[in-house]
Every structure is written in C-alpha cells, then in structure tokens.
Amino acid sequence: MTTRAPWPAAISLARAWYEPHLTRIHEDADTRRGDLLQLEQIALGYPSAEAFLTELTLEPPDATSDRSGVPLKDEDYLILSTIHSAKGQEWKSVYLLNAVDGCIPSDLGTGSTPELEEERRLLYVAMTRAKDRLTLGLPLRFYVTQQSRGGDRHVYATRTRFIPRELLGHFESLHWSPAPQGGTPAPAPGRIDIAAQMRDMWG
pTM here? Predict the structure, then answer.
C-alpha cells in the first residue's frame, strides 16, 4: 500500500523522479530543469494540488525564458530613456524627441538664469550620448488635446533656443514629407487636400 505525499512535498517528489530523465529526453535539459524548479517554487504559494492545477489550467504561462543568445538583427531592441537616466551611458544612435522650446528648455525651467543653464546642460548630456549618429526631432506643430476626432487645432513649435540659426550649418536637415515638384507641400497621411480638390472642381 502506497501513501500519498502531503502537499507541497508531492511536487518535490515528482520533480526528483523526473529530473534524471531530462538529459535523456530533452536537448535543453538545463533549461527544463530550471523550469521545474521554478514551478516548484510557484506551487509553494498554493494550499493544495487542486488549487495549483486549477490556476495553472485557467492561466497557463505563455512561454518560458531561456538564456540569452547571440543578438540577431531582427531581435534588436529600442531603449527609451529620460535625459537624466541617460547620464553616463552611450549608444550608437540616439534620437532626441521634441527639441523645441517648451520641451528643451522645459516651460518650468526658464524662470531664472541658473534654471535655464541647467536645461542647456541637459541638452548637452542628451546630445553627447550618441557615439555614431544623433537625430534631433523637431515637430512642426503640436495638436491640441481633447478635441473632436479628426480635428486639426494645433500650435506651431519653434526650435529650441539652444540651437540658434548660426549653428544650423552643422546639422543635416531632413523632412518627413518633402514637397513635390511645384513647391506645394504633400498632404499628411490620412488627410484630405481640400485645396487641390477645389482647384480640380473649379479650374
């Protein structure tokens, strides 16, 4: 007659029985051994095997992690960081968003000369994080929030005062939607060029 092991010792006994078979059955035996240990740790948080199995059935894990391998191009990742958190770090390419007045410097950082100089230093920190390529994003406008769907109320943005016109020669200027031949700006994606339609209608 066999006696049933109490919970959660039962899952420890099951793992101990299964562990010697891992190397024989699976190529990734070390990873699976770690999964079993993790499963055992999770099981300790449940009062019974029934509760544990019910939870595992209703909410099964999506995947199990493995050791990090050689990075692949299709697995590259993007790091989002504040300027303060970026201090002391470097990346090959850095994209600085919203290099406009109101953001850099912040509206809250222009009350005094020391505050303004601190904002200037922050921009210097952000720009010097790039080892190979630096891109400054300058939106032309900011759309007003809480307006009706499809609304176009906006305010125009101005380049940060820390990059005056005299310095623009040191930057390469690229535009998201270049003007086509004839000089008329291309309409933004998803928007209707009313002026062009009116010209077509009325010649």
Answer: 0.49
